[in-house]
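Thread: Modeling a multi-component assembly for a lab meeting

Hi all, long-time lurker, first post. My supervisor asked me to bring a structural picture of a complex we are working on to next week's group meeting, and I have zero experience with this. I have the sequence lines for every component (571 residues in total). Could someone generate the structure of the whole assembly? Inputs are pasted exactly as I received them:
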Amino acid sequence: MPDYTNTSEPVIQVRSVIKSFGDQRVLDGIDLDVMPGEIMVVMGGSGCGKSTLLRHMIGSIVPDSGSVKLFGREITTLSEQEMNEIRKKFGILFQSGALINSLTVGENVALPLREHTHLDEKTIEIMIKIKLELVSLRIHADKMPAQLSGGMKKRAGLARAIALDPQILFYDEPSAGLDPVTSAQIDQLIIDLTRKLHVTSVVVTHEMDSAFSIADRMCMLDKGKVLKIGMRQEFETLRDTPAENLTSDQDKLIRQFLRGDADGPLSRRKADSDYEEDLLRV
Amino acid sequence: MGKSRSGTDEPFETSGYLHVLALLGGTAMGISRRVLATLGSISLLLSETFGGILCGVFVPGVRLGREALLTQMVRVGIKAIPIVIMIQLAIGMILPLQMFPKLDEFGQAEQIATINGIAAFRELGPLMTAVILSGFAGASIAAELGTMVVAEEIEALEALALNPVRFLVVPRLLATIVMMVLLTVIADVVMVLGGFLTSLRLGIDADVFYLLSREAVDLMGFGTGLIKAGVFGLLVGLIACYLGLAVKPWQGSDGVGKATTHTVVYSIVAIIGADAIFTVIFYSYGLFK
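Re: Modeling a multi-component assembly
Sure thing. I ran the full set together rather than chain by chain. Output:
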């Protein structure tokens, strides 16, 4: 279970991270702590910067300013080689699974083991079987990725992500493009793996059903800023409170997102632009 | 005036032909800046690749990836053998046929063996193989790597602490160089064989053809041809890998298509350019008689 005692250090610490692409500011001062053993769900609408935040946490993007610490180590200033040592300690499930298409499922899982460990071939074979069994894909080890369905690809990607027994697992939109049942299975898998392997999980998603079923804590992003971080229960309460009882606009906005309502402050924001003026200008 | 298309920020306060000149100059500067930047990144890729090769050979524990290399050699080279044979046989048959009437006028018909031999080993063997491989291997490597970028596979490799250059570029580049040299040997021999078939048909004595061919082909011609082939292979492989990896994830299939086309076009331009430079060097040092 997540460790929220005061003595524990956060596994991931993001401090006032700012990042712009061109003249568009994608992250505008993000602060986020992820505690050991918890499932942190980062959510927000399309283009709110949640994927960019994830890419900062895995070290594939360097922020314009601010700090990102993994395991207490600042990663924004590391060299490629030092970063690679850190990379071996976490795993990532990409949106599409990102399996290497020219290798079989088994070989994909074996890849990090073959490259980063000195295990002999027999041990690696056993490891592949164990990892694939965890995601119920053992009998598909010899298939090529092209022969797998979307959900199976994600599970195979997950097996590869846990190959080196990582301490953190990152998930990029784990339930995007999956049917409800498969999506629920992936959710269950995320919970099981987090508890069984005692890893810390960071899940980036915009699927609210999935978010509420897996999260310990949640973080809501909007326009590159953190709107709210809190326990899942707080968000559930907010979701179930009638809109009339909410006073702050921010709470109303979060509530609309959590419920997936068509009407609310989020929709008004889109309509607020100078539509009439724009029409008259023609 | 705002930003010029070439990307320079200087506003041009000019008129008439001066304006056009300024615009042309700006564009040329923009283009040359981009060319320089590209050349810079390509040399970076090259040095990283050779670093990877050296590491794989000399540092114990770092794998060069023998299986990957074999796979790539089969894919780049072995599968191209039939088409190389077909094209070189055809050229070997066509060239003497075109030369024959003129040479026959001077009573030198049998010299088609000399012409064919020199053309094959010094020039057309390496050149045609390189052109074939730029379409056969270069395009497919660029498309493959580009698709891997779009499918997040490259990012996944990096996230697994695997260097895409060492993992993907090294075997592809090595395979292209090695197979280009080997295919050139085949291409050379097959072209002479094609010339032989034609000359038989034209009534030239087989022994004479053999003797003249032997005389035309010296070790220098053969060797320089293979050196050229190796460099052509390097160019094709390097351009293909660079353009493939330069695809951006958000460009999608459009980016992959462009990378593939550009690979073939730039490869052929680079090959011809290198060929011209080689010829100048070889002749100015008097390597050929």
